[in-house]
Each structure stands twice: as structure tokens, then as C-alpha cells.
Automatic annotation (TrEMBL):
This is Large ribosomal subunit protein uL10. PROSITE patterns: RIBOSOMAL_L10. InterPro entries: Ribosomal_uL10 (IPR001790), Ribosomal_uL10-like_sf (IPR043141), Ribosomal_uL10_bac (IPR022973), Ribosomal_uL10_bac_type (IPR047865), Ribosomal_uL10_CS_bac (IPR002363). It comes from Corynebacterium lactis RW2-5. SUPFAM superfamilies: Ribosomal protein L10-like (SSF160369). GO terms for cellular component: large ribosomal subunit. Gene3D superfamilies: 3.30.70.1730. The keyword RNA-binding applies. Belongs to the universal ribosomal protein uL10 family. CDD domains: Ribosomal_L10. The keyword Transmembrane does not apply. Forms part of the ribosomal stalk, playing a central role in the interaction of the ribosome with GTP-bound translation factors.
Length: 170
């Protein structure tokens, strides 16, 4: 009976992690050492909780949280990255780590109400993060504003040059 209570508590904790996450990434970690998993956790940062869990418990927690589409990815040893911060940053960190450690395989995930496969996750990792996108937008707006300011200033400077030329003629 105590084991059943422990499993119920574990599913409840996983459900809470699912509900509090902006995105979820399912990975296969077979062949990774404890040191390598610790290194991955450090690379992911404080906004990502990376934990190993039983597939059955992940299925139950996801179902209770209303998350669908993960079942097809829940086979073999599974570790879950619960991303509470910027999903793109975490995806980049996982992609980089997987590139250096071939034993880490991305199975799929879930973000913004949509289940993702490994290819979609790869596309997410290749995107610019929110901060970079905002900086690019700000730069574009700044350039446009500088052009508008130049256009608005042009008639004024033309009038000033014309007035100076007329005064020289006198």
C-alpha cells in the first residue's frame, strides 16, 4: 500500500511539473553516465528540470494535465526536460549536448498545446530566442525611425540652405 501511495505522489509531482512548464522535451538517455546527465542539467540551467521517470507515470501525469500526443514517444528509458523559461534556449542547449553526446536522443515533446516530434524540436532549437528576436525588431524599428527622421528633416535643411543662398546674393 505504501508503494501505491508513493506512485500516486510521484504522478502528482510529474503532473505539477507538466502544468507549470512552457514546454516538455522527452529524451532517451541510455548510455549516458551520471556525470554526463549532471553536465546536461547544468547546461540547461535553473529554468529546466531534467528528470528520469517511468513511461507509465509520465503517461498518467500528462493525461491528468490534459497533455496529449506524447504516448508514441514513451518507449524505452525516458528522461523529461520540464522547461519553465525560454523554450528555445533549452532546445539549443539540448541540441548542443546531443551533438557532443550521441547517447542523448530527442524523442519528441510538447509546447503551446501541440505535440512535437524530434524534427520539430530541431527546428525549435534552430530559431532565435525571444531576446534576440526583440533585439532584431528594435534594430529594424530604429533604422526605420532614422530614415523617417532624415526625410522629415530634409525640407527644413533645404529651406535653411535656400535662405542662406538668397542672403549671399543680396
Amino acid at each position: 500500500m505504501a508503494a501505491n501511495a508513493e506512485k500516486i505522489a510521484a504522478v502528482a509531482a510529474l503532473k505539477q511539473d507538466v502544468e507549470e512548464s512552457n514546454a516538455i522535451v522527452l529524451t532517451e538517455y541510455r548510455g549516458l553516465s551520471v556525470a554526463e546527465i549532471t553536465e546536461l542539467r547544468r547546461a540547461l540551467g535553473a529554468d529546466v528540470k531534467y528528470s528520469v521517470a517511468k513511461n507509465t507515470m509520465i503517461k498518467l501525469a500528462a493525461a491528468e494535465a490534459g497533455v496529449e500526443g506524447l504516448d508514441e514517444h514513451l518507449n524505452g528509458p525516458t528522461a523529461v526536460a520540464f522547461i519553465k523559461g525560454e523554450a528555445v534556449d533549452a532546445a539549443k542547449a539540448i541540441k548542443k549536448f546531443a551533438g557532443d553526446n550521441k547517447n542523448l536522443v530527442v524523442k519528441g515533446g510538447y509546447m503551446d498545446g501541440v505535440a512535437m516530434d524530434a524534427t520539430q524540436f530541431e527546428a525549435l532549437a534552430d530559431m532565435d530566442n525571444r531576446e534576440t528576436t526583440l533585439a532584431k525588431l528594435a534594430g529594424a524599428f530604429n533604422g526605420v525611425l532614422a530614415n523617417v527622421a532624415g526625410l522629415l528633416d530634409a525640407p527644413t535643411s533645404s529651406v535653411a540652405r535656400l535662405a542662406a543662398a538668397l542672403e549671399e546674393k543680396k
